[in-house]
C-alpha cells in the first residue's frame, strides 16, 4: 500500500470513530450538567425559597418546589406578553431562559399548553424560538387578554394587588393582571380534585398552587423521561405532593418536555431542573408563554442547606 492510501485510510477511520463516539460523549456530558441528586433548600430572593427533593423509591424522581410570598416587597408577576396586532392567541415561541432574559426577571417557569407542536428528532421539531404558536385557554399579561378561555379548563389569576387565585370558571375575573390556564384542577379547597385519572403514568409535570388567602404561590416542577435520574410522577402523586405543601387550590399546567424552571444568577439564566427536549438532557423547549417573577435580592449571602 502507498503512504497516501494509508493516510486516507487513517483519516477515514478516525472520522468514522468520531462519528459514532461523539453522540454518546455529548449525551454523557449533558447528563453531567443536570442538578445533583441531593436535597437542597435555599432562599433565592426576598420572599422566594427553593427546595429540591431527590428520591429513589418507587422510582428515581427529582422534584423542584418554589414557594413565593406574594406579600414580600418587590415581588411582581409577569405572564409572557401577547402581541396586540396579531391574530387571536398567536405568539412567538421562546425558551424559558429567553423569556427571563428578555424581561430581566429573577424567576420563570413555562406555563400554557399550546399548539402547534411536534418532536421527531433533535433537528426536526416545532416550534423553534420565534415560530408562531397558540396558547390553549386564557392568557392574560398586564391586564391584556390575548388568548380566549377554553371550555372546562381552569385558570390561575393574579390581581393588580398581587393576590392569586385558581378558579374552575375558565375565565379570570375583571381586573386580573396576569393569568394562565391549565388542563386539570388538582386540588380544590385543600382536597384532591382529581377523579378520572385515565392512563396515569409517571411523566414530567408542572403545577401551580396557592394558599387560601392567595398570598402564597407555589411552583412545582418534576423532571421525567430520564431513566436512573428522574422518571417523573403520576397525576395522583403530584396531587399528594401539593397537598403535603398545605395548598388550598392547585392547577396542572404544561409539563412533559416543556418542564423548565429558571432563575437569574449573576444576570444570566440558570436552569434549576433538568429539562429534556427532543430526548436531549438540559435542552430547553421553546414554548408559547411563561409565568415569571420580579424579586429583590436577599440581604445576606446565599446559605444552602444540604440534606442527606
UniProtKB/TrEMBL annotation:
Residues 105-294 form the Phosphodiester glycosidase domain. InterPro entries: NAGPA (IPR018711). Pfam families: NAGPA. It comes from Tolypothrix bouteillei VB521301. The lineage of its organism: Bacteria, Bacillati, Cyanobacteriota, Cyanophyceae, Nostocales. This is Periplasmic protein. Keywords: Glycosidase, Hydrolase. It comes from the Bacteria. GO terms for molecular function: hydrolase activity, acting on glycosyl bonds. The keyword Disulfide bond does not apply.
